[in-house]
Design goal:
Blueprint lengths: L1 H20 L13 E6 L4 H14 L4 E5 L3 H9 L5 E4 L5 H5 L2 E15 L7 E2 L1 H8 L17 E5 L4 H10 L9 E3 L2 H9 L4 E6 L8 E2 L1 E2 L6 H6 L5 E9 L6 H10 L5 H6 L3 E2 L2
Parallel strand pairs: 1-2, 1-3, 5-10, 6-7, 6-8
Antiparallel strand pairs: 3-11, 4-8, 4-9, 4-11, 4-12
Length: 275
């Protein structure tokens, strides 16, 4: 019940914000109208929110909605025609592409490995991260920390963040989680409240309440994600149906989100633009 209320509140707040932005005139002073419905990745919240707000500011009368259900649910929603554009924080799988779905990468995002600020550990190798999550390393003292049991926090099955993390660390179906949470925000909050916890979350969503570790000595930043030296990264993807035309308004938003005009907005939201 608490989860449902939280999601509904977030949706109402987002709709209120976007509705307010829609009252502003665009550059040409015309009225655009129409609706754009997006659904999916919680990691993309800041990016898609910033893009939606900017789009609303430029197109009077347009309604933009974002339903933060997770990558898997967003992919399913666009496949079933329940939204215009699905949002995924992982690349589409071969079977998803074969079913008629198309991916368009709008940005790159680092997956930060996070711990509580009280944790003295500052760096882990990719191999150490994998061994922690598979249960081979169970105590922080074995990686330079305190003598305390490691509490492994992750995302639920179907999460794009989880899929990206497990693919990069080569731990697919081998992770031993203490908790599997349903949103990026929940992971950050849980790690911030437990001095022995470790988790992973979108770099774009990281707050001062947690500490992002360096991986193989490289800090997660826009620059290191862009040049590839930070290894734990994944794409932010817009998902559409192959051969199915978007509405005029949805197509206009899609064109805007994938254009060079959106680059500064994506960057300000903490992700790395590709246009």
């Amino acid at each position: 019940m608490k989860k449902i209320i939280t999601v509904l509140c977030a949706a109402v707040m987002a709709l209120s914000l976007f509705a307010g932005c829609g009252q502003k005139a665009n550059d040409s002073g015309t009225t655009a109208g129409g609706t754009v419905a997006t659904d999916g990745s919680t990691s993309m919240e800041k990016v898609i929110g910033a893009l939606g707000e900017s789009f609303m500011e430029a197109n009077k009368g347009t309604t933009f909605t974002y339903n933060p259900t997770g990558s898997g649910s967003g992919i399913q929603a666009v496949s079933e025609g329940r939204c215009d554009i699905g949002l995924s924080s992982r690349a589409l799988k071969d079977d998803e592409k074969a079913s008629g779905l198309k991916e368009t990468i709008v940005a790159l995002d680092g997956i930060a490995i996070i711990v509580n600020p009280q944790n003295p550990v500052k760096d882990l190798s990719l191999e150490q991260i994998a061994r922690i999550y598979t249960g081979e390393i169970t105590n922080w003292k074995d990686v330079g920390g305190e003598d305390a049991e490691i509490v492994r926090i992750g995302r639920e099955a179907g999460s794009g963040t989880r899929d990206g993390f497990e693919s990069i660390t080569e731990t697919k179906d081998a992770c031993q989680y203490r908790q599997e949470l349903t949103s990026t925000g929940d992971v950050i909050t849980t790690v911030s409240q437990n001095p022995n916890a470790i988790g992973y979350a979108s770099l774009a969503a990281i707050k001062d309440s947690v500490k992002a570790l360096t991986v193989n000595g490289v800090a997660p930043t826009e620059a290191t994600v862009k040049d590839g030296t930070y290894l734990v990264q994944r794409p932010f993807v817009l998902v559409t149906k192959e051969g199915a035309a978007l509405s005029e308004t949805a197509q206009k938003f899609f064109d805007f989100a994938t254009s060079a005009d959106a680059a500064s907005i994506i960057s300000a939201a903490g992700a790395v633009p590709v246009a």
